[in-house]
Amino acid sequence: MLYKFAIGFTIALLLASNRVSQIPGLNLLNYLYIGFPSGVEGVVLLLFRLGTGVLFLLHGYPKLTHLQQ
Questions:
Q1: pLDDT 10s digits, 23-68
Q2: Distance of CA 3 to CAs 9, 17, 18, 31, Å?
Q3: What's the whole-model pTM score?
Q4: Is 38:32 a contact under the CB 8 Å cutoff?
Q5: Least enclosed by CB within 10 Å: which of 2, 21, 22, 26?
């Protein structure tokens, strides 16, 4: 299970690095992250992201605590 995490993390770092992003076709982060909006839209988006993160934590925490049973 740990090897899957390590492979995924390595791929994410490679896609985020500046050297790989200069290769045409591998600049995927620019398609995913356009920028952060300013004003009220930015605050609403930040609250939405924080709320989604909290819900993921609340959803996954019981599963993580019962893995050893």
A1: 665 666 666 667 777 889 889 988 999 999 999 999 988 887 887 6
A2: 10, 21, 25, 27
A3: 0.47
A4: no
A5: 2
Measured CA to CA, the distance from residue 15 to residue 26 in angstroms comes to 7
Q: How far apart are CA 50 and CA 56, in angstroms?
A: 10
Is residue 61 within 8 A of residue 52, CB to CB? The reply is: no
Which tokens belong to 56?
């993921």
Q: CB-hemisphere CA count at 13 Å for 53? A: 6
Give the helix ranges, DSSP H, for 1-69. Answer: 2-16, 18-21, 28-32, 40-65
Amino acid 23 reads I
How many whole angstroms separate alpha carbon 69 and alpha carbon 54? 25
